[in-house]
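Hi P.,

Sorry for the delay on this. The queue was packed all week, but I finally got your sequence through. Input first:
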Amino acid sequence: MINEGGHHRLLSAIYDLVLAPTDWPIVLRLLAEALNSPYATSIITTPERDTPCSLGAVGITGDDHRAFLRTWHKRNVFGARQPSREAGSIVLGRTILPKSALLRTAMYQHYLAPRGIEELVRLDIFSDACRSQSISLARPWASGPFTSGELAFLRALMPHLQRVATVHAHVEGAMAIARTAIDALDGAQAPLLLLDANAKVVHASTDADRLLHEGDGLSAGRDGLRAATPAFSARLRAVIARAAGSSQAPGVSGALHLRRPSGKPDLVVVAIPARSRLFGPDIGRASVVLQITDPLAHPMPDPVILADAFDFTPSEAILAADLLCGLSVGETAAKRGRSVATMRTHLASVLAKTGTARQSDLLRLLSRLPRTTRPLA
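Then the structure:
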């Protein structure tokens, strides 16, 4: 049984997982040594048992463990007998499947027996509707069954393992939300930047990144965002600082136009407070959202969205998109190689499907739908 020093090392290794979740093999090795078990593995799986993920393995190689999961996890004789997981439970393999029954299984004959994986205990650390995490420890039958002292030792460790698993679940959930927010940012109609309080870029949407690389009126340096001149840079930093706020005062939105050395129309930027309570990649460090308006970027309606929203035919959706881009019925007829009469027929159908009486009402309605932003040719 593990001594006091070994126990402290094991607890330290368990809590180190909070910052280093890839260190599961270290924890498994210490557990295997403490329980006189040459084999230890940990997995995350789903209730359907169709997407197991190996966190680590001791006594077998990582490739061997992954091969086992591919071949046997779905029809694991222990999981098939007791598929449900109860967080905090410690289950002996012999209580799930007696030795006499295990000996007759294909999994034992082809995989477990050649490796001496026979006496088994499973720790069900974490379980919810989406996934579960468990640790399995195993040794040959010649080493004897797990003793009451060993099981008591595992019960004492369980709360610590569960705390770490719960932290991981919360962090991964926050990271998933952060990734979703970043994806939404990248799909925004206007170029957007996430900035920290020092005006440094945390994340840039695709269109914003293009503008920064052009460096025409706005660029990113090591010390944060820069405008075309020191004076404009100072004004930009002041607007961002006000939006970031402080511990004493909340952030306040502000706006500024930025001149472009190329002579193109000014960029307009709006700084919006955005202190995030999430912790995850990128978004957690952001305190300001900077929205950039480029007068030369023309918002192009997506005909697919128009068709889906109002059950337009492809021809009707294209007409609606052209009208939103400022073309007249005659201009879109010439552009598409169709007659004006045909386009007027399509327009009548579009008005009927949208419940609008005039073209101005139609454009007001359609303009509220999402668009894709593309620079003018």
